[in-house]
Amino acid sequence: MAQAHAGAAFASGPADAAGGLDPAARSGYEEHPPRMGFFTDTSVCIGCKACEVACKEWNSVPEDGITLTGMSYDNSVELSGSTWRHVAFIEQSAVTVGPAAGSAADSGAGVRWLMSSDVCKHCTEAGCLDVCPTGALMRTEFGTVVVQDDVCNGCGYCVSACPFGVIGRREDDGGAHKCTLCYDRIGEGMTPACAKACPTESIQFGPVDELRERAAARLDDLQEAGVAKAQLYLADPDNGIGGAGAFFLLLDEPEVYGLPPDPVVTTRDLPRMWRHVGLAAAALCAAGLAAAIGGTP
Amino acid sequence: MSRRARDLVRRRPHLDGGRSHPGREAHDGQRGEQSMVPPADFRSYYGRPVIKEPVWEAPGVPGYLFLGGLAGASSALAAGADLAGCPELARTSKIAAVSAIGLSAVALVRDLGRPARFYNMLRVFKPTSPMSVGSWLLTAYSPAAGVAAASAVTGLLPPAGRVATAAAAVLGPGVAAYTGALLADTAVPAWHDAHREMPYLFVGSAATAAGGLGLMLVRSEQSRPARNLAVVGAAAELIAKGLLLRRLGPTAAPYESGRSGNLMEVAEVLTASGLTAVALGGQSRAVAALAGAALVASSAVTRFGVFFAGVRSAGDPRYTVVPQRERLREKAAPHPAGPMEESASSAP
């Protein structure tokens, strides 16, 4: 079942059409479908949370605490083992943007309401997958990253390796869980539950190459319309995670949405770490033997 | 109450999160000129952390770091003691090694979300995962430490004992050192950014513990190698810690303040007291035992300090957002003053 392949972080490999690394081919799939992913255009998100509900329903993700947070309309707080889509709500005061700027509706103490549906990024260089000691985390033929629940022993390493705080360990079953990009649905040619349920097409599903083009075109449109802070997040295949399978169009800086502004996968530094570990271990071995010098007094 | 709900109660969200800070827009245009000045303020989502706090818990995981280090360095010391002709010290170190590694394995398994599946650690070998490499190291090391101790205690099979002692002396330091990569190979800022120094800090701390234990338990005529190792280890530990703090810059704050900072300070005081007592104690058995105890305790406290420093840096978005912003600023407008750290992940 598992074609998950260790060592990906240390090797470059085949490139996809857009010039980024092809994660499925790097993981040993000789023939595979195109890399699939999400483009989440937050400029048309209306905060309906249909994605959160559809994800819970389809994937049988359990309830994980019902708490009123005071964080605008956000009561699911963050992605976790039991929240695989999370809609962020940010109320900003007295900001005028876009074509409506200066209009009657936007004058005075207006509120700009940012909404964004967050999800696992399905990184090309996935820290969670790299550090998983059991091989429970694997790369699929679609270039996505999934947890094999029957293999995971709940060590929690993936939780600390994810630069986005996506994957979490559930308290009830002790295992790590996260978005699968609806592996079961896309294997049947269907659209993931969240994208299917999204009423505004804020969540778009498709081949990553195509989505990147669509994202670039949408950014052009918004910039032409004068939306100054509109920006693509993680769409560049040349970023610190080798490009993402799920990327975003944001209307403010990433950290405003709780996203890291410049994430770098931790395993990029691992070869250097191993060198230092080797030197340190050799030094300790030598120190132990050298301690014999002087012998018994 | 779920973990998340507890978390929320503990950390009241800042309700101004996400709002633009006055004056920020004006600064944006001048980023190039300001690249050396860390921003006084940063933006976040209601003050929530960007990355997850580690699910690893104390005392299990820091306890494992300490015990694994104590075991590995004790095996190296045992080989040195055999060479020096100090059989008492060698036997004590071998028993310490096998006991510590046994306890540490229990601590590790207990920390798993699904302890009954611990054996899945040996399902694959992945050099990209320090935990995988560590599991295989422990699997090879533990039997060697066991045979070395058994032979030393019973006097049976001396050749097997010698081979096992040598094997444990080679593998043990690996066990003590790899935990540096185990912590550093994460997105946790105070751990990852310390990835150069952490292995040296940990082997230094391990040598301090093993030497200290020898001083505690073995009479002075037999404990010279333990004293040597403790002194070298403590010195290495103090130097590595100094380098780490200097290079981390603002990310060093969790090592210098709060509960984790206090622990690091206590460890330093214990190390210094232990070293002083070793230097001035002469042949006094009682002073040597006290000095040894201080050094063992110092090693344990260091691991707890490092552990909690990481947890704190993960729980505060400042440590994730500010260095990454700084990195972007440098990329956009390289500072003319000279080359910055080449590492893509170094702190500002």
Descriptive report:
The complex is a heterodimer of chains A (297) and B (348). By secondary structure, chain A is α+β, with helices and mostly antiparallel strands. Chain A contains 8 helices and 10 strands. Chain A has a 4-stranded mixed beta sheet with strand order 8-1-10-9. In chain A, strand 6 and strand 7 (176-177) form a beta hairpin. Chain A is globular, with a radius of gyration of 22 Å. Chain A starts with 22 loop residues before the first helix and ends in a 7-residue tail after the last helix. Chain B has one domain: Formate dehydrogenase/DMSO reductase fold, CATH 1.20.1630. Helices cover 68% and strands 0% of the residues of chain B. In chain B, helix 3 crosses helix 8 (198-217), helix 3 runs antiparallel to helix 12 and helix 9 (224-248) packs antiparallel against helix 11. The longest helix of chain B has 31 residues, at 285-315. Chain B is globular, with a radius of gyration of 23 Å. Mean pLDDT of chain B is 87; it is low at 8-39 and 338-348.
Named CATH architecture of chain A:
2-Layer Sandwich
Number of strands of chain A: 10
CATH homologous group name of chain B: Formate dehydrogenase/DMSO reductase domain
Total number of domains of chain B: 1
Q: What fraction of the residues of chain B are assigned to beta strands by DSSP?
A: under 5%
Query: pLDDT under 50 segments of chain A (min length 5)?
Result: 1-11, 101-107
The CATH class of chain A is Alpha Beta
> How many angstroms does the end-to-end distance of chain A come to?
62 Å
CATH architecture of chain B: Up-down Bundle
Number of domains of chain A: 1
> Biggest sheet of chain B, open or closed, and with what strands and sense?
none
Largest sheet of chain A: 4 strands, mixed
Oligomer: heterodimer
Q: On the 0-100 scale, what is the average pLDDT of chain B?
A: 87
Structural class of chain A: alpha+beta
Structural class of chain B: mainly alpha
- Poorly predicted runs of chain B are 8-39, 338-348
The N- and C-terminal alpha carbons of chain B lie at a distance of 39 Å
Number of strands of chain B: 0
